Amino acid sequence: MQTVAIFGVGLIGGSFALALRKGGFGGRIIGVSSDQTIRAALDLGVIDEALPAREAASQADLLYLSQPIHKIAECLEELDAWVKPGALITDAGSTKTLIVDRASQKITRAQFLGGHPMAGRERRGVEAAEADLFQGRPYVLTPLTPGDLESPAAREFQEWIPRIGSFPIIMSAEEHDQTVAFTSHLPQLASTALAALLESRFNNQTRVYGPALVDSTRLALSSFEIWGDILDTNRDAVRLALASYIAKLEEFRGALDTPTLRRGFDAGARFAARLRDVT
Amino acid sequence: MQTVAIFGVGLIGGSFALALRKGGFGGRIIGVSSDQTIRAALDLGVIDEALPAREAASQADLLYLSQPIHKIAECLEELDAWVKPGALITDAGSTKTLIVDRASQKITRAQFLGGHPMAGRERRGVEAAEADLFQGRPYVLTPLTPGDLESPAAREFQEWIPRIGSFPIIMSAEEHDQTVAFTSHLPQLASTALAALLESRFNNQTRVYGPALVDSTRLALSSFEIWGDILDTNRDAVRLALASYIAKLEEFRGALDTPTLRRGFDAGARFAARLRDVT
Question: Helix, strand or coil for residue B81?
């Protein structure tokens, strides 16, 4: 792999470029992004050069799609005509079913392998990119068949995952989307709903709160520009996660004076503590 | 104020002692706690000496009750017989209605002024105490009448609030409890419910999560030994807060593909951003 093209040089794409470089990648890194982002990415040394999508696609051994989800899906409509045979197209979209499905219809001249690095920050943009963003975080790969992991290009890409500090987890696109509905999309909606409720109730006029509220509303800073696509492409799973969460809250509401609440606190503390052992 | 007695030398009581000292308090600080806590508090230099409750109460100009809520309420049953006339009894309980009510019935020979420093950590105990815990945080005072703030002892206590890095907010016990149901108790239950739900769904077998889930479950580490009393003494307000939160989540569940969700994200981000301007 000599040439990597990053489509969408934002937080994730920019961090992937920086992490590749830090991991020892000596080839070219081409950026495909808006003019403004390209200028910032060149200034910050995140990419080596910028090209239009068509030229970048025709030269790259690895095409890394790290735009918002619907943008990735659009991009997949065009790439097949441009790519080099033997190239690998992968993506970093936060939901996988739509993208993997679209790629299986549209990509015929190169190989597609869906991915999702489970890393992020509430800040966006190439300015927030950092080489260590993936450090210690899982990198989900969603092959359509086990053979998708065995091609030379796929093997080479997988070799880079530990070199950027990450570790691979292989699962289907559907299983991924059902899981992140609970572990990622639900925490986001829980924080946003809390902050939106308090906005309507207090209009920021209260100063009566502790550090817990500041922490609990951190995710609510996240942008709808990103989350609109995520939630739109995982509706059924997100609705199920919300329904399960609402049921748990209803259980608490009915049990403020009973042992149910203690069991809930114990279970929650157990989960939170184990999460920290693993992290 | 020459002598302060801290009843319950845990995170809050211990931090108050350390903060007083750092703020320039030159008098005696007596601790009243379990044998084990007293040993740790003396070792850590948090208190100067330990006494049984009765002796401590009879010598103190300020009695600082920082036990769990029901423990404070029990303590108020006994203190009146022991205190010096002119002494001020205050507390750091996380709900105020029960405690203020109990004090108004039981304390006749000294003055009671309810308080709640809006500071905390998910770690408990005197080992977690720190002199800067109250830095920049509000200190709620809940006088029964405005005159409660004007006595010599109450004025002197209020002078210490900025010296420990805090700022006072005056409100009624009822208004405090209704507010913290939304700004403190609801964030706690939201985190605990999320963690408890994921515990039952994944049993910690999934590694497919990002840093957001770790953050979102931090409050779930909090102990039910503290929260049982808080929720038990603020049931109606907490039920209302939970119902409002559930309604907001239901709104999201029904609107994953509509502008409602964008409005929710915008309102949530606005609240979260303003919270950080103030903090």
Answer: coil
What is the residue extent of each domain of chain B?
3-171, 175-278
CA distances from B209 to A181, A243, B182, B212 (A): 10, 20, 27, 8
Of the partner residues A118, A256, A269, the one whose CB lies closest to the CB of residue B221: A269
Provide the residue type at B120 as one letter.
Answer: G
Q: Nearest-5° angle of CA B186, CA A260, CA B13?
A: 55
In CATH, which superfamily holds the domain spanning B3-171? NAD(P)-binding Rossmann-like Domain (3.40.50.720)
Nearest by CB to residue A213, choosing from B140, B266, B275, is: B275
pLDDT digits (tens, 9 = 90+) for B195-219: 999 999 987 678 899 989 999 999 9
Contact B183 A221 (CB under 8 A): no
The dihedral sign for the CA sequence A76, A80, A83, A86: positive
pLDDT tens-digit readout, B54-91: 999 999 999 999 999 999 999 999 999 999 999 999 99
Taking the CB of residue B112, how many other CB atoms lie within 10 A of it?
A: 27
> How far is the C-alpha of B17 from the C-alpha of B34, rounded, in Å?
17
ipTM of the complex: 0.91
| C-beta contacts of A254-260 below 8 A and 24+ residues apart | A256/B231, A256/B232, A256/B235, A256/B238, A256/B239, A257/B232, A257/B235
Minimal Cα–Cα distance from B109 to chain A, Å?
A: 31
Q: How many CB atoms lie within 10 A of CB A136?
A: 12
State the pLDDT at residue B204.
64
Give the C-alpha distances (Å, rounded to integers) separating A160 from A29, A168, B267: 14, 10, 40
Tell me which CATH code domain B175-278 carries: 1.10.3660.10
Contact A96, A39 (CB under 8 A): no
